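Hi! If you just cloned this repository, the fastest way to understand the data is to look at a raw example. We've pasted two of them here, unedited. The first protein comes first, obviously.
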Amino acid sequence: MPELVDLGYIGLFIASFLAATVVPFSSEVVFTAMLLGGLDEWKCVFVATAGNWLGGMTCYYIGRLGKIEWIEKYLHVKREKMEQFMNKLHKYGDWFAFFSFLPGVGDVIAVASGYFRCKLWVVAVSMLVGKFVRYILWMYLNGWVI
């Protein structure tokens, strides 16, 4: 992780991208280290949001491929877990992708959104907003935004 911090904004982008995939990784640690290191708060928010969003959209596209064997083998997302979200996706619509920033279930939401063929533009916009809110909330909770 220190290697990513040493890379500055590029390291933050990589950390945020990885955190949005099924790789068990916390972008908040790198994000916080960047802020403590004196990097610009808003640039960090935009870089982290971009990386996290692109990671989430990668999960969406993998889900969209529809190869459940690949999803289970490489992403470690079980079919049963995705089917749990199917009812929520039908109830709340494609905008449910907003919640893909949530730890633990966010990756499943992103993959399920692709697998169940949710509208690309709705998923992209709602996921982007959710990821942005995530980092703003993190800054607020840690006292960097008043």
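Ok, and the second one:
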Amino acid sequence: MKKSITALLSAAVLLLSLTGTAEAASSRDNSTLVVGATPVPHAELLNLVKDDLAAQGITLTVREFTDYVAPNTALIAGDLDANYFQHIPYLGSNKEWEEKLVSAFGVHVEPLGLYSNSLKNAADIRNGASIAIPNDPTNEGRALLLLQSAGIIGLKADAGLTATPQDIVSNPKNLRFRELEAAQLPRSLEDVDAAVINGNYALEAGLNPVRDSLVLEGADSPYVNIVVVQKGKENDPRIAALAQALRSQKVKDHINKTWNGSVVATF
């Protein structure tokens, strides 16, 4: 009997201990938010609102990535609560991402631009020039559409957002295209005549899209950068708090003052 009572008491203590641990874990989960982001402007904007979230009892941890694949892989694995680096066409370019992840809200657009170390304007592009473009499906199509909008090339009518160099039907200057990882494009300017570079990588390389680009996307670009979460977690209170913080006048003012049109708020 004594052993039975002792066993029951031990079980009760263990249950209370486990319950306390579970409650602590739940509390910790509800008071922290881990978001993956590329450095500029995403991580910078997230760090800007850390204090705003802290005032609501949420500790924001920003994990920086330098590529466009790892943040989605980490989010699917549960290592992140959200990520902030991509647009909807890119999210939809991978079946697993599209099935498991979803846009929670949009924040800004980073206009894609054509840059060169040797040219002053697009009209100076020589015959046979080499042009570097992103090699991921959606950004490659976006880059080619930008070149088409400037009258530099022409694409098949149905090429759309996933256009590749094989879809070029008009290339009057016989341009040669080099397909590179997006992060490598700023460095490629030493080796090519021009390169189409994503806004965040241009900023990291010290390029000012408004001042330095030969051709620049308009503010009406459909490639709005979004905060992404696992499906089913769109209504998480922490994500709602993050949306309120990132879509605030404080953030809009910072975007306008810091990047002067190189990054455009969409709220």
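That's it. A detail worth noticing about the second one: The two ends are 69 Å apart (CA to CA).
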